Amino acid sequence: MPRRIQLVFLIALCFNAPLVVAQDAPTSIRIATWNLEWFYDHDTSDNKTDLSKKLSAPSEAEWNWRLKVTAQAIAKLNPTILALQEIENEKVLNDLRKELRTKHDLEFQVAFIQGRDTYTEQDVGYLYRGELVDLSRKSQTKEMYDSKKYYNLSKHAFATFKWQKGDTSTSVTLLNVHLRASERGADARSRQCQLIQHWIRPMLNEGQNVIVLGDINTAVPCDKTSPGSDAGVIGNVASSLGQLVLFDLHGEIPAEDRPTHLTGNQFDRIFISTSLMFDMRQQFDPSFKSVENRKDLCVRNDPDKDHYNVYFEIPQSERDISDHYPVVVTFDLK
Fold it and tell me: Taking the domains of the chain in order of start, what are their residue ranges?
């Protein structure tokens, strides 16, 4: 055994601690978003609303089925970081983490902050492999609230991840969101998009690597994006300053593969900063390589036509995992 490694090993033994050998960052990272559609277990004792109880798994067997097929899909997706929406709580994320570890030999960590949606009790969270350095939520100030320009996000989480290569490091900050749905929620959703842009603008000004991803619930396809549309506001497409723009990666997906929901809508999006879109900095940093809609991992046999109220009535062999499909972006890390 080389002298240096032997010394590290002896120090670890003296402190009764596990031996940890630092490893350089991978050559690529995969960051994905997936709305898991009412990913609620069968135990309704911790649910407060009739709606959340109604749409929970009806039995332990059905919950175990959901864990099994969802973990199978995630294992095939093989993300470095997975931003999830429509999860019940931290407990279901840990159930999923255990399934991935025991059945697929994949070790993920869980990042979760309790949200504020008291009607659906839905939340967002992360499964990740790597180093999480910050996890937080935000709210608008009273002055912002009084302006009526913004609308709070009840389901969101900021997370900053770091990778090391020798003496250098790089980081990416993600904002995982689940915005208000339907035409009825259009005004609130538009103001939520304004709030997202308000939050990330200082980060973009500083040249940080930023990703906004999740279920933005927009009915406007990516090729019809305008400055005032949901995606247009998030991406700040009206800006003439390139460094303040977020790129909607959905335009990089072939047109026939863009629907991310069984209705044909493009609800699920990934937006990335200029610093990630173009490899211009000539330093250790992620740079965009490709983006995919992985409908194939979600749809089983023929695509389902409807899920609401009938999800668990569909035979398991035919039932799609979710009404949303996972979207994943790959970055070279060099």
Answer: 25-333
